[in-house]
Amino acid sequence: MAYQPAENRYDNMIYRRVGNSGLKLPAISLGLWHNFGDDKPLETQRAIIHRAFDRGVTHFDLANNYGPPAGSAETNFGRILREDLKSHRDELIISSKAGWDMWPGPYGFGGSRKYLVSSLDQSLKRLGVDYVDVFYHHRPDPETPLEETMYALRDIVASGKALYVGISSYGSELTAEAAEFMAEEGCPLLIHQPSYSIVNRWVEEPGDDGESLLQTAANNGLGVIAFSPLAQGLLTDKYLDGVPEGSRASQGKSLSEGMLSVENIDMVRKLNDIAQERGQSLAQMALAWVLREQGEYGVDTVTSALIGASSVAQLDNSLDALNNLEFTNAEIDAIDEISHDAGINLWAKATESKTREN
Ligand SMILES: NC(=O)c1ccc[n+]([C@@H]2O[C@H](COP(=O)([O-])OP(=O)(O)OC[C@H]3O[C@@H](n4cnc5c(N)ncnc54)[C@H](OP(=O)(O)O)[C@@H]3O)[C@@H](O)[C@H]2O)c1
Fold it and tell me: Name one GO molecular function term (predicted).
């Protein structure tokens, strides 16, 4: 039977405007970093994507290297798109990226025009689309002049192969500089994609210029889509009683067992108690926290929380976070008191690798 999306799919999702642009994103978006490679059954992938779309998740985030093997998440998503969602292409925001290692030799990594343009062409083929909605430079590259990377992004938009462009894991100062270049070119950066969660708050800390990344993004009209808001699963109840079989931590992938230290699990247990008092799962509270109203920039400080999911049940649980995004001051204070940096920011070195000075 051909897939028929739910008719009420737009009834319960919250859509937030991305920075100063005219584009809106769902408050929760789905990323395909893990769980959508050739190591996972295609039918599970299909069920998760159908359910996401049925619940108003219009944004699916990919990158050239998502898999394993690298590229297979785009191929698998492209197949599901072709088979089930083709007539809904204009209802979808599909993103991809290049910047991390993709193919051997000097042109499969970094921020050169050569790499970005050829990688996007490969991504379009794997996805089976003429354009992506958002194309990102995936990480700063200290060996490529910022101008070269930004002008490549500008020309990609001019070529029609991406409608908007963004950056990921750039620090505050470099973000400001990149945003200025692109504004002058009449091709403003749409969005920044940083890691951000209760236990990884680097985006709130002032950089050398005294501004946090969240402030810099807002001041330059960029939206923010926060990746790994569940700290790869640490901010859920799944590791409270050990490491379940099949979980990310059990697979020797990006969530090492070292991140599940006694201190971290003890913190997670206390956070779980607060979530329960709020009538939420810990995953739901962690997502609501990322999306919470933040002083100066209000509810739009973070446009969207970019989650992963290995099952429909997880996705459903996470999407129900939208039922309660409000926090009392006492809850915020209690979360601050309990939480510490969990040492899970795997992208910190990339962020630090380029500042205005060097
Ligand atoms: N720009 C970048 O450099 C960058 C880097 C990383 C990620 N990202 C993007 O961000 C997306 C999300 O990253 P992420 O997967 O690390 O995000 P995450 O949402 O922090 O973690 C997802 C994992 O948490 C567990 N989980 C999810 N919902 C749950 C629930 N309700 N209850 C219990 N466990 C739950 C699952 O673990 P199990 O798989 O163990 O079941 C799932 O795979 C990626 O797919 C990618 O699009 C971007």
Answer: oxidoreductase activity
Establish if 207 belongs to a structural domain.
yes
Range of the domain at 25: 15-231+287-323
Q: Is 94 in the pocket of ligand 1 (CB under 6 A)?
A: no
The model's confidence at residue 43, banded by pLDDT at 50, 70 and 90, is very high
Rounded to an integer, what distance in angstroms lies between the CA atom of residue 195 and that of residue 240?
Answer: 23
- pTM of the predicted protein model: 0.97
| Continuous segment of H or E residues that includes residue 26 | strand 24-26
Quote the Cα angle for 54-36-47, to 5°.
30
Do 276 and 312 form a contact (C-beta atoms < 8 A)?
Answer: no
Q: Tell which atom from ligand 1 comes closest to the C-alpha of 244.
A: 40
Distance 12 CA to ligand 1 centre (A): 22
Q: 98 lies in a domain? A: yes
Say which CATH number the domain at 181 has: 3.20.20.100
Q: Which long-range contacts (CB under 8 A, 24 or more apart) does 16-20 make?
A: 16/223, 16/299, 16/300, 16/303, 16/304, 17/223, 17/300, 17/303, 18/190, 18/191, 18/223, 18/303, 19/190, 19/191, 19/217, 19/218, 19/220, 19/221, 19/222, 19/223, 19/303, 20/188, 20/221
Domain count within the chain:
1
Q: Would 279 be classed as within a structural domain?
A: no
| 245 occurs within a structural domain | no
- For ligand 1, whether the C-beta of 229 sits within 6 Å is yes
Using pLDDT thresholds of 50, 70 and 90, give the confidence band for residue 160.
Answer: very high
Atom number, ligand 1, closest to the C-alpha of residue 139:
3
- For residue 356, is pLDDT > 90? no
Q: Which helix (H) or strand (E) holds 152?
A: helix 146-159
Q: Is 36 in the pocket of ligand 1 (CB under 6 A)?
A: no
